[in-house]
Write a structure and sequence with these properties.
Layout (H helix, E strand, L loop, with lengths): L20 H29 L2 E17 L4 E6 L6 E2 L4 E5 L2 H25 L2 H4 L1 H26 L4 H32 L10 H18 L2 E3 L4 E4 L9 E2 L4 E18 L11 E6 L6 E9 L25 E8 L12 E7 L5 H4 L1
Antiparallel strand pairs: 1-8, 1-12, 2-4, 2-7, 3-6, 4-5, 6-8, 8-11, 9-10, 9-12, 10-11
Helix pairs in contact: 2-6, 4-5
Length: about 350
């Protein structure tokens, strides 16, 4: 017998615990539920797209007026600068008026000359008829003298020379009368009034028209805003700048005419109609969402209104989905100023009625 105690029994080294069934069931549930969740999410997303059409090919538009001067000259004063907000009729800039003031003085001188000419014609002897009366008296005297010479010639008491001289005197007197009458008609014609300006001498009327034109040009040296808006592209609006007629000097952006031009695919227009409700989101203002409505649908695609429309007549023609411009009116007042050209995302709700019916 040994003096040491016997060791306790040792457990088998290769004995293993069985795998819990819950872990295997979780893996199977995950493999099944993930595709189902994706299908449900896709269905919900697809369902959310029904009844509305969206595009991010849209931009803020505002009417713009190019302001130019109707007369040429040097700018002597500027009352508006880049970024200013002006009202309709407000003075923008002034052109040197001195050349047009001189034109008015020239027109006044022309009118004065025409008036003096009329006075001179009215006092002309050709118009009074004095020469005509004298010519008629000369004719009467020449005919009387010729009649006496004719009677003497028939009796043989005068010479052929005296007879011919008396006859020639009658002819000369009659010719003098015709000349006097012609001069009177010419003088009356110079004083005549045409049907276009009755009661006014043509020379005076021409001078008055010249003066009116000069006065109009003088008024046009002051250029006023044709509409309310914000001044833009005013780089050439400088004192001392030479302005040419009808050449734009600045641009007025009419902020009250803000709208959005959205370019929708032609395949999106089947359910779109004027008056449908729309939502507007702007890249520049992420938190701003404005309400609007479809104001009009373009009469042609964008390519039709381009400078060089595409001509797909070649053999390698490829069909391209066209874009149609749709005008979206902005119904809400924006908390931030909308600037022309801002990128916009437009959503049109085609399943609802018009924006007016919704309100």
């Amino acid at each position: 017998m040994s003096d040491f105690p016997e060791p306790p029994p040792v457990a088998e080294a290769n004995q293993t615990d069985p795998q819990p069934p819950r872990r295997r069931f979780g893996r199977i549930a995950l493999m099944v539920s993930l595709p189902i969740a994706l299908m449900v999410g896709g269905f919900i997303y697809w369902q959310g797209l029904q009844g509305k059409i969206s595009t991010d090919n849209a931009y803020v538009k505002q009417d713009m007026v190019a302001v130019s001067s109707e007369v040429g000259g040097r700018i002597i004063a500027v009352m508006a600068k880049e970024g200013d907000t002006v009202e309709a009729g407000q003075l923008l800039f002034r052109i040197d008026p001195e050349p047009y003031q001189l034109q008015i003085q020239q027109a006044n001188a022309a009118i004065a000359g025409a008036q003096a000419n009329v006075t001179s014609l009215q006092n002309n002897t050709d118009l009074t008829g004095v020469d005509i009366s004298a010519a008629r008296e000369d004719i009467a005297f020449a005919e009387s003298r010729f009649e006496r010479q004719r009677q003497l010639w028939e009796r043989g008491f005068t010479t052929k020379a005296d007879y011919d001289a008396a006859q020639h005197a009658v002819t000369q007197a009659r010719e003098s009368l015709r000349q006097a009458e012609a001069r009177q008609r010419e003088a009356r014609a110079k004083l005549a009034n045409g049907s276009a300006v009755p009661g006014v001498n043509p020379q005076i009327a021409a001078g008055e028209a010249q003066r009116a034109s000069a006065q109009l040009n003088l008024r046009r040296t002051e250029v006023h805003a044709p509409a309310a808006g914000r001044v833009a592209e005013a780089d050439r609006l400088q004192v001392g700048q030479q302005v040419l007629p009808n050449l734009p000097v600045l641009t007025l952006v009419e902020e009250q005419t803000t709208y959005v031009e959205a370019n929708f695919k032609e395949t999106d227009l089947a359910d779109m109609a004027v008056g449908q409700r729309a939502e507007l989101r702007f890249d520049a203002f992420p938190g701003v969402v404005l309400k609007g409505h479809v104001a009009s649908i373009g009469a042609g695609t964008g390519s039709e209104f381009s400078v060089l429309p595409a001509q797909n007549a070649s053999g390698n023609w490829v069909k391209v989905t066209q874009r149609v411009p749709v005008r979206i009116a902005v119904d809400d007042k924006s908390p931030r100023p909308l600037i022309a050209g801002l990128s916009t995302e437009v959503t049109v709700f085609t399943a609802t009625g018009s924006a007016h019916e919704a309100r």
